[in-house]
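Issue: ligand-bound run for nicotinamide-adenine-dinucleotide - logging full I/O for the record.

Environment: standard queue, default settings, no custom constraints.

Inputs:
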Amino acid sequence: MRQAGEEIRIASSRLRQFVASLWQHAGSSETEAALVADHLVQANLAGHDSHGVGMIPSYMASRRQGHLMQNKHIEVVKDAGAVLTVDGHNGFGQVAASEAMALGIERTRQLGMCAVALRHTHHIGRIGHWAEQCASAGFISFHFVNVVGDPMVAPFNGSDRRFGTNPFCAIFPREGQPPLLLDFATSGIAFGKTRVAYNKGVQVAPGYLIDHHGAPTNDPTVMHETPYGSLLAFGLHKGYGLAVMCEILGGALSGGQTTHESSLQKSVEAIFNSMTTIILDPKAFDAPQMQEEAQAFIDWAKASPQAGDSPILVPGEFEQAQRAARLRDGVPIDANSWQQILAAAREAGMPEAELAEYYGQVS
Ligand SMILES: NC(=O)c1ccc[n+]([C@@H]2O[C@H](COP(=O)([O-])OP(=O)(O)OC[C@H]3O[C@@H](n4cnc5c(N)ncnc54)[C@H](O)[C@@H]3O)[C@@H](O)[C@H]2O)c1
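Outputs:
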């Protein structure tokens, strides 16, 4: 277990500028660097540090190993009207997913719905970001994602890692209010949350991890040092079942890959995702009371007498609250992660004088 260090806090606008500059020094175009920076900082703002700027050292390692390709764009490999299949050519997932969603949104404007299957892309990070892109166009979306060849999670009743943390996401836009946003890993906790706990030197809650013998443990070290243990899927056979569907709908239906012996990314730092997205225009349905009915349900659910100290939330409210607090107070980053990010910035070629400017922003 690592030793805990001092947490730093940095204004999100300054952090975005730092990350964009880092990727430009590493060779990304201005647009690519901005897309990656915005996505990572938005993940931190949403309270998902597991998918924020703490991913930079992993992306840099993937670039060093020649897996992450910079300045790539998606290619439409099959256009079947309401179904688009696109290839990300192992480029930055932040570019590929943004371009894929833009194509799907355009097609949904024409047809009322569209499925976009994205394959061969580097890590696409926080899936909620892509759902929010659809919701800002006024659309509902569902996202089934697999993590190709990077097993972390044991099957229900199994004892070793066989598949990825395969996230599922759905969004419902609301009039005059933030959308309902459900966005989670099908593992009980995201792998990145074990990285954050490992870097902070703290244990994770019970019920999420097993060691290499298949025995329950709370120590995140089992995910970061050999002999490796596994994450468990959330909700017993139900979470495991959803993970299976994400693997097949994300990996197989997109023409990408599922996880099995011959697709394992052995000794590879890169994270590759495939994602099948279904986008729906709510206006294409015969439901003039849709918004009122949605609100009536939310009011009804929230009227339940609170069982303890925590309020009743609907999906998406956690992220809204985090965003408000972090826009006000800055983004917290643990000391170990910040040191790793600064090392990645040096590797990208950021001059010491520029790095020193950012030290000055940190309290
Ligand atoms: N790209 C990848 O390969 C990959 C893999 C796994 C996870 N991820 C991402 O990691 C992020 C974190 O995933 P996670 O599993 O740790 O998320 P999580 O366990 O924090 O769950 C988040 C979801 O639960 C909702 N929520 C939180 N508290 C709630 C409450 N009290 N009541 C009702 N709803 C509540 C949130 O609004 C959100 O929809 C996600 O953004 C996910 O997309 C990405």
